[in-house]
Structures are given as structure tokens and as C-alpha cells.
Design goal:
Structural class: alpha/beta
InterPro entries: AccD/PCCB (IPR051047), AcCoA_carboxyl_beta (IPR034733), ClpP/crotonase-like_dom_sf (IPR029045), COA_CT_C (IPR011763), COA_CT_N (IPR011762)
CATH class of the largest domain: Alpha Beta
Number of helices: 21
GO molecular function: methylmalonyl-CoA carboxytransferase activity; propionyl-CoA carboxylase activity
Radius of gyration: 27 Å
Oligomer: single chain
Helix content: 40-55%
CATH architecture of the largest domain: Alpha-Beta Complex
EC number: 2.1.3.1
CATH superfamily of the largest domain: 2-enoyl-CoA Hydratase, Chain A, domain 1
Number of domains: 3
Keywords: Transferase
Mean pLDDT: 90
Number of strands: 17
CATH topology of the largest domain: 2-enoyl-CoA Hydratase, Chain A, domain 1
Protein name: Methylmalonyl-CoA carboxyltransferase 12S subunit
Low-confidence stretches: none
């Protein structure tokens, strides 16, 4: 009969074997691809020595196709929790060395249990994805396992932050779990996501494409918008996951953590007047404005390479997390189009779900005109951003830096759709459209009948600008709360957000709204 010492020794041996993988060649292959093992990734993500693993000895019960002869501990996924900067975070990581990280019944049940624990504990969930999809040998039970994950992703949405880190292949239905989460991180060269792989695409459409060309990090970071962040290596990627978690609350019932800042909240920002040109058509990089305003110039931009005519970024003001939505004149003159509207709408919605105040930096000439935009549904997609802002109950502050024309002015969190406070620089122009276009419409007959149409046109443009586009027009009508100097912007924002920190807004009784998806 085995003694207690014998059983303890066996336990230690089994746990060690599960951690190291009985197949040392599989570990060498993983490293040879430039990829870390599941445990190595968890160690980089979590605070040193904080990881508590659960179900390390779980084994599948499948039979057939030789499965009964291969029953490794862990069943290809590592699950547990630890801390990031001292705060609890739940994590699961596919172990590609075991069944290629493919999901079977036991594998899925481990993830289900961890997700349930994360929701119950009210703590963020991070998935480290590197798996070959559903385990073919287990058939429909593997597919049902994915269904359970998707259902829990949806139940956790807006309740706890969910972050997906793509570190290897993710094909078929497996790609939908990351798509349901709040943020997706990808590593160049090793991570891919697609519903149908290159072989299927080639067979069905005749298109010849590589894995990376079809669903690599660059594709999803710049074309599809599936990935929010793209990195060259796993270490840098996981470091920024930690940084993102430091900006977020544990759940929707808490405020984001506050970090003492040595950057004075009343610091003046006179350089903003130099960064933003007076001429409404001259370009500049709005990220320079953001860096000048926020604490220590640090911010984490979301979707940096996708829908670049709008910038969405997380930062701190006076030590408190804020979400910033800013038109980007350096790309498409800062217009709102289909993809930028979607990008900003999702970001606003996320900030509202997790009690993150929203600052909107406005310099927008309007929505992008064109047949393609109209036919592809700019009305419906633009309405997504409008709905997100109107529905948001967190503190909302608008700063109009230069121009704000037409419907885009309204959509970019104007007072009329519920911004708590609106400020404008003296250079602001708020109007239905630019003076040139407005004069062509309003004074069309005068210009056409004039002996010197160019002179009359110039005079009428000046007249329209003086009457309706002077910087104090909106302030006189209460549509902006104050006209401020650019150098006061940081101080004004810090004071405004401090005032609104205890804001409470009662939502109407309803099951949920029906946004224009």
C-alpha cells in the first residue's frame, strides 16, 4: 500500500511532468518557432510567484482514434489566476505542445470553470491563445465546448475586462471568442486568425494566399480592425497587456485605479497653439496634442493602424484614467467615415461600460463624402458612434480645437447629445459647413450675377464667417461652456473631470437598447 510520502512524490512528479511536457521535442519545436511555452507566457504576464494553477491534472475521457492511449495531464490548456501589479487577474493559456493546443471536452470545461470564477470574483480575464482549433477526434463535444466559451464571453461583456492575446494560430470558430472580447493583441510572424484557412480559400475561390497574408497581425491590425494592438515579440506584447490592465478597473462596479502623478494638473500647455495651425485646412498630428495634455505624455493608443482618421487612446489626467477620442487631421483631414465611426463607437462603449471618463478632442470637417461611403452604409455606421455617445453615462468633456462642421460636430459629443461640458479654443469654427461651401450655396445668385464673381465670392465668404463662424458664436448661445486658451487645456480638463468624478446618471428602465449594429 502506498504511503503518504509515496503519493506526495507521485503528485510532485505528475505536476512537474505536466508543466515541462513529457515531450521535450515539442518544447524545442515551440522555441524554434520563436514562441514561448504556456507557462513561460504566464510568468511574463503575472507578478513573479503569484500564479495559482487549477486543474493541472485534468485529463480527457475521449476514446477512439487512439485517444484512449494518450491522456496527458492538463489536456492542453493551463488555467489559474495571479496578480498584475498586485491586482487579481484570471488567465488561461493554450499549451501548443499538447494536442497542438486543440480544444476538447475536458479542455473546454477547464476554461468554462475559470471564466465562471472570473465573473464571480469580478476580476479581469486574459486568454493566451495558441491552439489548433477544435479537437477533431472529439467531434461535436469539442464544438459544444466553444459554444460554452462564447456564451460566457457574452455574459462577461461589460462586467469584467476581457483581453485576448494571439500568440499562435486561431482558426475557424475559435476566432470568435477573441472577437467577443474587449481587446485583441497579436504578435507578428506567429499569430494568425481566420475563419477558413488558405487551403479552403484556394479550393473555393482559387485565391492563393499565405497564412500571414490571410490573417496575420498586420492584416488584422491595419485592414480588418480585428486586432487592437500589434507587436514584434511576445515579451513586448505581454508587457503592454500589463500596462493596459493597470489602466482598467477590475470590473464594472469599480472605478479605474488612481496612480499619483508628479505631472501638475494645472500645468500650462502653450505649445498646443503651435502644434495646431490656424489655417483650418493645414494638417498636424493630433497625437502630439494628446501627449502634451496627458500625464507625462504617456498614452496607449487603440487600433493605431486602423481607421486612422480618428485616434482612440487610454491615458491618465491627474492620475485618473481617461479615454480620449480625437479627430486626426493627418489622415483624411480627420473626417469621420465608416471604419473610424465604428472604431470610435466601440471605444466609447468600452469606456462607458468600465467607468472611464471620455474626453473628445474635436477638429472635424465632416463625414467622408462619396458614393462608396453612402452605398456601404455611412448613415448606419455613423449612427453607431452617435448612439454610443448618447448612451454613455460616464463624465464626458468636449474640446473643440479648430473646426467642427455639420453632422460630424453633433456626433463628436456635442452638448446637444449630452456632453457634460464643452470647451472651445478661440480658433474654433462651428458651422453647418465651411465658409467657402456655405457662401456658394447661400449667395449663389449674387455671385453668379456679379461683374466680378471672385471678389463677391470672397466678400460673401468673409461675411458668412463673421456672422456665423466667429469663435464666440457658440458660446453666446450656450453650446460651449467656455472659450479657453490652448495653454489652459490640461488644467481645464483636470478641473472639469474632478468636478464630474461623482457623476451619477439613472438609465431608463429597459432590457437593453437596440443600437444600429
Amino acid at each position: 500500500m502506498p504511503t503518504t510520502a509515496d503519493v506526495i512524490s507521485e503528485l510532485i512528479d505528475r505536476k512537474s511532468a505536466a508543466r515541462q511536457s513529457s515531450d521535450s521535442e515539442a518544447t524545442r519545436r515551440q522555441h524554434g518557432k520563436g514562441k514561448l511555452t504556456a507557462y513561460e507566457r504566464i510568468e511574463l504576464l503575472l507578478d513573479k510567484g503569484s500564479f495559482t494553477e487549477i486543474e493541472a491534472l485534468r485529463r480527457h475521457r475521449a476514446t477512439g482514434f487512439g485517444m484512449e492511449r494518450r491522456r496527458p495531464d492538463s489536456d492542453g490548456v493551463v488555467t489559474g489566476w495571479g496578480t498584475v501589479l498586485g491586482r487579481t487577474v484570471f488567465v488561461y493559456a493554450h499549451d501548443f505542445r499538447v494536442f497542438g493546443g486543440a480544444l476538447g471536452e475536458a479542455h473546454a470545461q477547464k476554461i468554462h470553470k475559470l471564466m465562471d470564477l472570473a465573473i464571480a470574483a469580478g476580476a479581469p480575464l486574459v486568454s493566451l491563445n495558441d491552439g489548433a482549433g477544435a479537437r477533431i477526434q472529439e467531434g461535436v463535444t469539442a464544438l459544444a465546448g466553444y459554444g460554452g466559451i462564447f456564451r460566457r464571453n457574452t455574459r462577461a461583456s461589460g462586467v469584467i475586462p476581457q483581453i485576448s492575446v494571439m500568440l499562435g494560430p486561431c482558426a475557424g470558430g475559435a476566432a470568435y471568442s477573441p472577437a467577443l472580447t474587449d481587446f485583441v493583441f497579436m504578435v507578428r510572424g506567429t499569430a494568425q486568425m481566420f475563419i477558413t484557412g488558405p487551403d479552403v480559400v484556394r479550393a473555393v475561390t482559387g485565391e492563393d494566399v499565405t497564412h500571414d497574408e490571410l490573417g496575420g497581425a498586420e492584416v488584422h491590425g491595419s485592414k480588418s480592425g480585428v486586432s487592437h494592438f500589434v507587436y514584434d515579440d511576445e515579451e513586448a506584447c505581454l508587457q503592454d497587456v500589463r500596462y493596459l490592465l493597470s489602466l482598467l478597473p477590475d470590473n464594472n462596479r469599480q472605478l479605474p485605479p488612481t496612480v499619483p502623478s508628479a505631472d501638475a494638473p494645472d500645468r500650462e500647455t502653450p505649445v498646443l497653439a503651435e502644434i495646431v495651425p490656424d489655417e483650418p485646412t493645414r494638417s498636424y498630428d493630433v497625437r502630439e496634442v494628446v501627449a502634451e495634455i496627458v500625464d507625462d505624455g504617456e498614452h496607449l493608443e487603440v487600433h493605431a493602424d486602423w481607421a486612422a482618421s480618428v485616434v482612440c487612446t487610454l491615458a491618465r489626467l491627474d492620475g485618473h484614467t481617461v479615454g480620449i477620442v480625437a479627430n486626426q487631421p493627418a489622415r483624411l483631414a480627420g473626417v469621420l467615415d465608416i471604419v473610424s465611426s465604428e472604431k470610435a463607437a466601440r471605444f466609447v462603449q468600452f469606456c462607458d461600460a468600465f467607468n472611464i471618463p471620455i474626453v473628445s478632442l474635436v477638429d472635424v470637417p465632416g463625414f467622408l463624402p462619396g458614393v462608396r461611403q453612402e452605398h456601404d452604409g455611412i448613415i448606419r455606421h455613423g449612427a453607431k458612434l452617435l448612439y454610443a455617445y448618447c448612451n454613455a453615462t460616464v463624465p464626458r468633456v468636449q474640446v473643440i480645437m479648430r473646426k467642427a462642421y455639420g453632422g460630424a460636430y453633433i456626433v463628436m459629443d456635442s452638448r446637444s447629445i449630452g456632453a457634460d461640458l464643452s470647451f472651445a479654443w478661440p480658433s474654433n469654427e462651428i458651422a453647418v459647413m465651411g465658409a467657402e461651401g456655405a457662401a456658394e450655396i447661400v449667395f449663389r445668385r449674387d455671385i453668379a450675377a456679379a461683374d466680378d464673381p471672385a471678389a463677391v465670392r470672397a466678400a460673401r465668404i468673409a461675411e458668412y464667417r463673421a456672422e456665423l463662424m466667429h469663435p464666440f458664436h457658440a458660446a453666446e448661445r450656450g453650446l460651449v461652456d467656455d472659450v479657453i486658451e490652448p495653454g489652459q487645456t490640461r488644467a481645464v480638463l483636470c478641473r472639469a473631470l474632478a468636478t464630474l468624478r461623482s457623476k451619477h446618471a439613472d438609465a431608463p428602465a429597459r432590457k437593453h437598447g437596440n443600437p444600429p449594429l
